[in-house]
Batch of 3 targets.
Target 1
Amino acid sequence: MTSATFRIWRGNAKGGKFQDYTTEVSEGMVVLDAVHQVQAEQANDLAVRWNCKAGKCGSCSAEVNGSPKLMCMTRLSSLPLDKPVTIEPMQAFPSIRDLVTDVSWNYQVKKEIQPFSPREPDSADGTWRMEQYDVERVQEFRKCIECFLCQDVCHVLRDHRLHGEFIGPRFFVYSAALEMHPLDTVDRTTELANDHGVGYCNITKCCTKVCPEEITITDNAIIPLKERVVDKMYDPLTKLLRMFRG
Amino acid sequence: MEQVQISVPARGWGQTTRADAWWVQPLAVFLGLSTFIVYSTWAAFQGEHYAFGPYLSPFYSPEIFGDSTHSLLGPKPGWWPMWLPFSPAFLILWAPVGFRLTCYYYRGAYYKAFWADPPSCAVGEPRSGYLGENSFPLIVQNLHRYFLIFALLLLVFLTLDVWNALWFEDPATNSLSFGLGVGTLVLAVNVVLLGSYTLGCHSLRHLVGGGHDRISGSPLRRQTYDCVSCLNRRHMLYAWMSLVWVGFSDVYVRLCAMGIWSDLRLF
Ligand code: SF4
Ligand code: SF4
Ligand code: FES
Ligand code: FES
């Protein structure tokens, strides 16, 4: 048995500070295990949100050694344990207590995106036909577990705090899943540009790097959306072509 | 959209709890791109030593006006203003420069390395104000697809250059004979790498099929989209490989033309 020190942020919306806890660690442990152990042995009032411990519910998002991560999927063996391991709540959302943040802004944002609106069913029994190839693109986006780590790391929210004008990478993934769906009929490009701030993304790819589901957020969702916005709003040639085609 | 009040203050310039060497990557990008900018500017201003035998430096191709045998329309035109320095490179270099400057990969890379926006992921920024690509000036980046047209054209010229680099002039008889030199290979690798970079462009991916919700309807569209997507997955790698190699191709032709290196004829 070896021991390791965890520097955990304790506090609430009014402020807080880091506190060090040293505890025994063993092989196979993840950060969430260590946090639970600290909670059980030394800090019964430590607030932490979790649910599945399997990287599927997206509840245990936090920042481990400064990088946004799922605590339940971050093995201690992947961290240098000779120095204290810092664990702090996500920075892009309001703090509730200790490691728990208020992510409800995300649910509000989601409501503002025009929902899936399929075309008329292809057959009389109310079903549709489509090629697997064509839905494959959106299936990548449907892996999202809404952990909001991508929102947390995105500098537009994290540093520039443009929550009022920018929906963030998670919701570009969501918009792309709807927008590229072969059955969907709604055009969301105008609001993506005007209200959802796709232009604020400067394609620095931090969202892609932290996504635990390995969704290629920037290359497969955001850039294709940007290109669709160019078609609609900025590209005079496509505009002209569209006029002729009617 | 709903505003949120965040209790934690935003972190200052360079502040982070990241313990790893987060500055290595942006620094490497900064040094890599700076070196290339300095070298290519210098090389473009030279206006000489850009051709050697059948080889033409890619910085100078196509040579629209110029003094080498590769020139398409003869020497420097009379209308060129006296006060303006002339180099055949000036007439074409704006196209690849514009293409790379507006490339999605490079944009992300230089916003980090040259403008610290952000310096690295989850590292505090120097400025709190932010416009992104949402308004002028950076909204102009959306012109990328127009530069793509020129980049594709350049690819055709560079491929022709490789063809030309297979025909060597015999100084005794003035006749052309088929051959292969190390320089031919250098120029050929350049086309392959530039092709892998250009044909993996995000805008191209959109234009050949990505912009449609149903791609499978046309087999040609589907195949093209798959090819472009395949190159696109390694866009960053090809961006760097082609950048280094295009610079090296110029160095190669230049040093041969200056007599410092001698080109090896393989046959
Ligand atoms: S790529 Fe865009 S959305 Fe993703 S983190 Fe960077 S700025 Fe944010
Ligand atoms: S896109 Fe990835 S990082 Fe973002 S919320 Fe979904 S799973 Fe999490
Ligand atoms: S606890 Fe469910 S993702 Fe970590
Ligand atoms: S996106 Fe990189 S070349 Fe077009």
Target 2
Amino acid sequence: MDLPTLKPFFEDKPELLQEILDRYPPNGRRSALMPLMWEVQRAERHIGEARLHEIAEIVGVTVTEAKGVMSFYSTFHEHPVGRFHLQVCRTLSCKLAGGDELYRALVEETGLVSGETDAEGTFSLQNVECLGSCGTGPVLQVNDTYHERVTRTRLAELFAEMRAGREPVPTRERGGDNVSADKAERVDAPDGTSVDAPDGTSVDAPDGTSDEEGGVA
Amino acid sequence: MKVVVDGVTLDLPPGTSAIDAVFAAGSDVPYFCSQPYMSPIGACRMCLAKVGAPRKDRDGSWILDEETGEPKIFWFPNLMATCTTAVMDGMVVDTRSEPVKAAQNGMVEFTLINHPLDCPVCDKGGACELQDRAYEYGEGVSRFVFDKRHQEKHHALSDLITLDRERCIHCKRCVRYFEEVPGDEVLDFIERGGHTYIGTLEEGLPSNFTGNITDICPVGALLDATSRFRGRNWEYHHTETTSLDDASGSAIVVDGRTGRIERIKAGHHPEINKTWIDDGTRFGHEYADAPDRVRRPLVRHDGRLVETDWADAMDYVAARLTEVNGRDVGIAIRADATLEEGVAARALADHIGTGQLDHAPRPAGGVIAAGGQARLEELAVAGAILVVGDVTEEVPIVDLRIKDALRGVTPPSLFDHGAPIADLRLKERAPRHAEILTVAAPLRVDLMRHAGRAAQYPAGGERAFFHALTALAEGETPADGDLGMPLEAATAAVDGLRKAETAVVVLGGWVLASLQATEAALHFCRAVGAKPMLLGPMANSYGLELVGVAPSHARYAYGGMLTGAKALILSQLDPAIDPAVAERLDKLELLVVHASFLTATAKLADVVLPAAIGYEKDGTVVNLEGRMLPVRAAPVDAGESRDLTGFVKAFGEAAGQRLEGRSVKSARRWLKKGLGVDLDALPEHGGWAPAKRGPARVAVAVHEAPAHGGALRVPTMVRAEVLDRNPHLRAATGGLALGLHPDDAAALKLRSGDEVTVPVAGVPRRLVVRPSEAVPAGLATVPATPDEPVGLVPIDLKQIALERRALEVA
Ligand code: SF4
Ligand code: FES
Ligand code: FES
């Protein structure tokens, strides 16, 4: 990752800055706080203190206030997150569907616990609350993409992709709750065709482990 | 509107909050987040009550209860936060039923879940809202058996304020306070939910009004660092008095214990400071207990000052005075002496038979405007305001009242229980009408951040500035450059003042320092129909001018007596900081100094008498509006210190005379006769001073030389002359600043933080270099003291002597 430079982030992006500021009336300039933060975070994978000062100055608030807003949302990062930010849901529905196992598998795979980033800056692991996709747990969000009903097999595939430096292709459920995990399809496969779900033997749920331990905090 | 609270029927104005209705009815609900003079936000849910109201049918008639035939009360389905509920006609509030009790109980239990319950070691213990409410409304047991949240317990938010994050109950009072009152958003909630804590990224909480959060924090989370672990609340003696730190007359409470002042808290004066005070007033009390305080009279024997008692010292003074012609004796007192002390000084002068009597600092322009002047309450509702000066440093409360005007919410009317607990007109992040405010000064001042228009005129150009404005008001074109702002801006400012129903022009010390500038300013006020507000330099400048502590001739004024008198009696003044004056004082036949510390002047004196400071006096002061306010002595051990009435009493005893003003009582008799005011009957919140001035003596304008020089003496919120004896304030401010434009500092090879000594108007000043863009190039700013009042003076930057600590040298 590039080291953050001292050059102001928006210095060479006047149009972008103007476009964002123009979204709000003059007396609502502070509303631009979050869009500006997103721009920085997208580019730098976190919002450093120098950036926060810059943004606060642009919208005319104190940096304390900017920090208050930023820290309110767990989606803004104070420290750089890895190239792959793994956010695993730990709320009830996902836990019942094997969220704890998923988390444990992630811990084993990455050697991290929630809140940590590896030394290479590849992975960050974080427990998060409900991602709003409760019917298709356990849910893992990689950067901005949801991966649903993450089984061991799927997880292995995900890691294979990520270790190869590729953004893994999202797996979304078609049909939601009415379709069992083994009927799930992967969408948007690289070649544009649908990929069949792995066969049932590799799915966690039927072997009973998640029923025993799911939901136990 | 008819409202029934727990069976008590009240008639309340619309807009009243239900919580105030409850208190007005003599009932009680607990509350944490509401705070008088701040917006209600309904955050703590402690003030829940059962609320209902009648409803109207479609045809506009009340829906009636079938059984009673009265309008039927429809209860809200849930308990309501009374602080955010406005009263409705016919509303019924019930604070005593079981569901309300259960809710209060539950909220106390919930609020205490993560609270450390460390009351035995908490400074707030015994005066803690949480402790009280938990006793009154809690069950006394908690079902929470898990680990509590742990957070930082001794976090220094600044040098003046310590934060215990575990004790915080997230009422948001402190956060709202900064946004709503001074408008400096330097504190905020960081994180969210159970992780929320109070924090700042602003180094040292940059605001002049930070200490107020320690008063309003309902728990012991925010604490005054000067008084941490110094005592328990029930041990403190609380003295309600008036601050003598500036001319506002702010109400303060002095908390003392075993003869020592431990802390100052804001008092409540609804028409002056509401419940706020500035940090200089709050934290600037430590000097009262400084180890080098003079506690006993000293008389010079064989060249050395030797301790003695008052009688002995005064015998000496009285005897020596007989050797001097009375007319050659000069008497000068500092302008924060009380009215009673002023009477004493007059009596002393009359007895000695001298016209050389004065108070200092006394601005040439005076502090009482002939045609009457604006009151703070008028300022707070003004539709247009022009400020010339740095009010934030000069009289900080004026800054806050101007910010009230920017919000455009009139001061609330009071209930029997005081200011409304929840004033529903106040909102978080209310829009501010910056356009009504114009601020002018020779440098960039803090209030300009809040002003619609800012003008930076050349230093010393106050008179020209007002001439230019008057020209504008009279339809002429003013000279270029005098206005310090674009012509359109100035025109808008003048039009605003002319059109506003209440327009106020605030005149700071730089204007008052010059009689001509003051006259020009008052002329402008008349031209646009604005009321002037004159910021006197000290707490009782107004009062001393009123009772006529003034010379009988201009050449007998303070400056004149320093050269002309053969003997001097000086109270709390220190002219000898100027080596040239010191040389002259050394040759006097008699120098009597009434002082709290062994100042440069006291060191030259024949007799030094220990002087009481503001917290140790009884008396009266008149604030800048002309309001007489009571000063009450805190029970403090100040050795044998006395105020001037005590001085005059001892002198009279030595001279075999019962002088007027020998006690507060006798001074008040004189004031009753002379001014027609009965100070013994002064109402709690003070009363208006009479328009009539004291008999016999006339305040004479001081001879005025045109101001020139490269240094502007600027007012400071802290008392500059005692800053070194106020360790906490000194640490927080970093010492007295020599303000320079960064380019000028660079040219002199000075860096921020360098300690230097530099002659300013002949007085060597020890200052800390603070380069700042706020200071225009070519100008230096130095803090004013009572002995070096605000204004433009010469500085000799060539003679600057740098003391860099070895470690700092690169
Ligand atoms: S620090 Fe005190 S005033 Fe501030 S939110 Fe916490 S409890 Fe309220
Ligand atoms: S519980 Fe995991 S997405 Fe809702
Ligand atoms: S909710 Fe806090 S006082 Fe009403």
Target 3
Amino acid sequence: LARPARPLGPYDTSEPVTPYGQATTYNNFYELGVSKDDPARNASALQVRPWTVEIDGEVEKPVTVDIDKLQSWFPLEDRIYRMRCVEGWSMVMPWLGFPLAALLRRVQPTGEARYVKFTAINDPQHLPGQQEPILDWPYVEGLRLDEAMHPLTFMAMGLDGKVLLPQSGAPLRLAVPWKYGFKSIKSVVRITLTASQPQTTWSLAAPDEYGFYANVNPAVPHPRWSQATERRIGELRRRDTLPFNGYAEQVAGLYKGMDLRRFY
Amino acid sequence: MPAVTVGGLLPAAVLILDALGGALGANPVQRALHQTGQLALIVLLLSLVCTPLRRLTGWTWPARVRKALGLLAFFYALLHFAIYLFDHDFAPGLVLADVLERPFITAGFTALLLLVPLALTSTPQSVRRLGFARWTRLHQLVYASACLGALHYWWGVKKDHTSPLLAALALAALLAARWLWPAGRSRAGRRATSR
């Protein structure tokens, strides 16, 4: 994957990118273990080829497609996004991939489609984390259709000019920069358009701590810690967390009239 | 310095060397926070092993290392709190909100507070000044501190509660041992206390 050499685009942050070595050794990916350094250590347990992605549900043209074929459908773009973990740390990630909207337009959502459900790899035979009942496997996530169609919502296949490593969610992962990191599901095998709101893994595991929306919001604390500040990886001092992770101008309109304390 | 103190301070030395050598990973503050918290609880649990071990075996050495273990636990708890304060930029507003509003932090902070009077009265002079019975009663606060520490650990983990569960089980076993072998009942205990 070649990283296009170009000036910053309208969706890029100009903040310094998190060093690749740190971005690929400090990960939450419970399928590969619960410690931050487990996913890098257990990376070889994730078999990234052959890999097919099934796109089904409320679409006119459902398809099951090989990952390399899927990649050839879209020109790769790069996006330098902030990534804010619900645990209070953040990184700046130079993703490579394509907007989810491009994929959804291709399969043509029906008039019934209101939500998009994502399902991650289920391979308890090889993935050490899935041999324990840490979470309800496979990991599932969801977006409202308008969130999914937003130009910021991105499907990443590479990072920093290189093919995604397993610990980063190879070979295909979501990147929704205004939501807490757990929304950006890794190693996606299925994308299903639905009429009703899909269940999501963390909101099933701890509904009082993690909601469906999970928009970055400094005003709504996690029950066990404040979300007002964050530590950017590589920095010692904390910095203020911004509403919608600094993407309010682009996405606040999606939630007009909603009580974001209730829909956290 | 007795061997227990030297050995007990080794993890702190390793932590400092790791920090200076950049070996604490991408989020060194969080790593140091977790390590010192776990050390505080582990050493506190070790200090609670001393009395049942003495009563069961009649050995006296566990009683002699108890104080050093207790002070080491307090040292790691203080270090843990200092790193937590650093993690919050020493901002009194943030810390106060945490302590008052979040049970997870309230539990940990109270566990530390309860250890303060115990550390302050850890000298033989204090035992004499307070009288053995009152001193003993005061030092029973360690049970409350350990329980709150274990609860704090449980609440601090996002998922996979294996380690906090092991700590809680160890604590429960140590408390049960006190109930099973109360002071001065067993022959070994009498032998030990008569010395």
